[in-house]
Amino acid sequence: MSDNLPQCPQCAGQYTYEMNGLMVCPECGHEWMPGGGGEASVAGAGERVIKDAVGNVLADGDTVTVIKALKVKGSASGIKAGTKVRNIRLVDGVDGHDIDCRIEGFGAMQLKSSVVKKA
C-alpha cells in the first residue's frame, strides 16, 4: 500500500484505501474523512449520515437487503443473503449496529450498515 495513506484511527490498520472521498479500513470497516479527523457518520451540521455497504445514504423507513449470510445467536438458521428488511430505523447502536429493524421470522434486532444494501 502507499505510504501517504493514514492508518485507521479506530484499529490502527495499515491497509487503508480511499473510496468516494472517504478513507476506508478493510480490517474493521471504519470510514472517515481524510484530514478531517472526524467520524464519517457526522456531517458538518451535526446531522448523522449512515451509508450502506456500497455507499448509498440510508434514511429512516428505507428498505434494505442483507448482502451476506449472518449468524444469529440462539437460532439454528441465520439470516440468509438477499433477505429484505423493510422500514428500518437508524439509531446510535452499540458496537457499530446502527440499524434497528424487524426481520420476519427473527423479530426485532439491530444490524450493521456494512452488511446491507439499499433496495
UniProtKB/TrEMBL annotation:
PANTHER family: PROTEIN YJDM, PROTEIN YJDM-RELATED. It comes from Kitasatospora aburaviensis. Belongs to the YjdM family. Residues 5-32 form the Protein YjdM N-terminal domain. This is Zinc ribbon domain-containing protein YjdM. Residues 50-119 form the Protein YjdM C-terminal domain.
